[in-house]
Amino acid sequence: MAREASENRELIATWDRLERRARDLIELDQLAENDSELEKQVAEERASLAKELRSHELDLLFTDPYANHNAVITISVGQGGVEAQDWVEMLMRMYLKWAERRRFETEIIDESRGEEAGLKSATFIARGPRAYGLLRSEHGVHRLVRISPFDQNHRRHTSFALVEVMPELESTDEAAVVINPQDIRVDTYRSTGAGGQHVNKTDSAVRITHLPTGIVVTCQNERSQMKNREMAMKVLKARLFQRQQQEAAAHLDQIRGQVMPAEFGSQIRNYVLQPYTLVKDVRTGLEVGNAQAVLDGEIDPFIESWLRWRLGQSSGVAQAS
Fold this sequence. Notes:
Elements: H1 2-31, H2 36-57, E1 71-77, H3 81-101, E2 105-113, E3 119-127, H4 131-135, E4 140-147, E5 156-167, H5 171-174, E6 184-189, H6 196-201, E7 205-210, E8 215-219, H7 225-248, E9 267-272, E10 278-281, E11 287-288, H8 291-295, H9 300-320
Parallel strand pairs: 4-9
Antiparallel strand pairs: 1-3, 1-5, 2-3, 4-5, 6-7, 7-8, 9-10, 10-11
Helix pairs in contact: 1-2
């Protein structure tokens, strides 16, 4: 609550300052008639004010109550075999690059390596201002079309991966999620990821299964089994909290979005690398020709476009009701 109050005060102060600048600009514009030097100042200030307004305009698009929370992201392999596993790793890199550009802190919770290449699944946390509010736009199935580096005949392949985005719960939110110890099964095993000899020689990795829902969460990045269990429980609570919110407001699709199988016809975004390069968001229609830049983390245009589209969708629902 204290953090939210501080952020709200800062937001109000920002808009008050912009309003004062706009009023000063109007006065300056009235004085600038037939004064070329003042007209030049007015033009420069107008451009500067418009640029700052644009940057703060996105603040008005974060209508989700959990927008200011950190984000828990899970990427899972879909149709496409080894290609799809490589695609999971490519998406993981894309989001980590995006987070690095924004100077967000990231923590990899779990990675399940593919037998030949890539990742079967990966879970990480992105911590930064409005991490969940931004990254929730990425929830859904992502489709890749390219000439496969794993195909000796150099044929085009289509791969799918599912991206799930959840808010990292704060202590007040976690209190609303009650887990009966009898409803979970905890398994320990040896970590298969990086981490040194200690991790690989002890049963430090933890897998928690929530029996009533079938949700499975794993964590193996910490050297301590206790810390891995603690983090796995945190992710499990986030997923159960998300599930509760879904069930409470499924028709509004407020938290997670519709769950879709990672296969043809269900994707939210297409990434085409051959025979041409294009990334297109199916929901908003936004297209970007520089696919490599997108894969290097430049996804802000898609995020902003989705936020505006989402706001329009919400307004349409409200008017219809």
